[in-house]
Amino acid sequence: MKAAFLPDRGVVKVSGEAARDFLNGLVTTDVGLIQPGLGRFGALLTPQGKIVADFLITEAPSGHGGGFLIDCPRALAQTLADKLGFYKLRAKVVVENLSDSLGVLAVWDGEPGIKPDLTFADPRGEKLGWRILIPAELAPKAAGLIGADLVDSAAYEAHRIACGAPRGGIDFMYGDAFPHETNMDRLHGVDFDKGCYIGQEVVSRMQHRGTARTRIVRLVLDDVPPEAGVEIRAGDKPVGTMGSSAGGIGLALIRLDRAADALDAAVPLLAGGIVIRLAEPDSVRLAPKKTVA
After folding, report:
1. 276: which strand partners?
2. CA 289/CA 208 separation, integer angstroms
3. Which of 89, 104, 94 is closest to 9 using CA atoms?
4. Is 215 in contact with 152 (CB distance < 8 Å)?
5. pLDDT band at 288 (very low <50, low <70, confident <90, very high)
């Protein structure tokens, strides 16, 4: 079992008697299902349905003051706190950026036999492991307590990429991507049965009409990996953009129909002149569009 403290992650806390209903009316996941020891994946969207910030969220037990703890990109923690504060109006909630005192320890390749407070399974997928919200200085002690080897955060990056979990800011750009494009619908990040939230109409329409033409897909890299941000082409046609890579695996934001056409025509995909291959070629085959009555 391995553990790594993630310096790129921060924590925002939302507390107060109205916190649950407040968050539930804003984000893509059903906050009503969250409890201490259980996390959910979700996002705050623009009214146009694009991702402002994606995050994991859990509930703090009463011994830690209650409220909801949001594990988010540290670079966006204050922006997220400010956005939530903007929507607060007269709601009885308090929004705090705790990123200077609380961070994220990722644990994978095993289940902790002892689970410290503020531990929860990564809700995006079993292989991604566990999260422990903890001050950075306590990471070595926590790793020892659960019997994990403390490794560099680069090891977790390689694991995340192998699991096909996108990272905002490198695999897609915040403010420019819809949840379906980043596979949030497949990673349990969108609840289609809950009530309204910001951007819900757009997301629901994409789900019911099957109109997501662009998605993050996994790549196999047989050569030196292309740099993130490099355009991917099939012949003279742009197909997508290269994202993160490690250990011969990469992620890319791909236009599905163009990638499928390239496969059918046996045209190689090139990123910066480097040949790349789709790890799951069938992943670019579009399902038939759903009809809307």
Report:
1. 269
2. 9
3. 104
4. no
5. low
Amino acid at site 180: H
* The predicted structure's pLDDT at residue 289: 52
Is a pLDDT exceeding 50 seen at residue 293? no
Strands (DSSP E) found in the chain: 2-5, 9-15, 39-45, 51-59, 68-73, 94-97, 103-108, 119-121, 130-134, 149-150, 214-220, 231-234, 237-246, 249-255, 269-271, 274-278
Q: Which tokens in the block code for residue 45?
A: 């969207």
Residue ranges of alpha helices (H) inside 117-164 are 139-146, 153-162
CA atoms of 238 and 95, how far apart (whole Å): 42
Burial of 8 (0-12, 13-18, 19+ CB in 10 A): middle
Average pLDDT, the chain: 94
Helix, strand, or coil (residue 27): strand
CB 202 within 8 A of CB 48: yes
b vs e for 28-38, b when ≥16 Cβ sit within 10 Å of the residue's Cβ? bbbbeebebee
pLDDT in tens, 193-227: 988 999 999 999 999 888 789 999 999 999 889 99
Cβ partners under 8 Å of residue 119, min gap 6: 37, 112, 130, 131, 132, 133
| Per-residue pLDDT tens over the stretch 86-113 | 998 888 999 999 999 999 999 999 999 9
Cα distances from 276 to residues 231, 235, 266, 273, in angstroms, run 12, 13, 13, 9
- In degrees rounded to 5, what are phi and psi of residue 177? -130, 140
Residue type, 13: K
Q: What pLDDT sits at residue 292?
A: 44
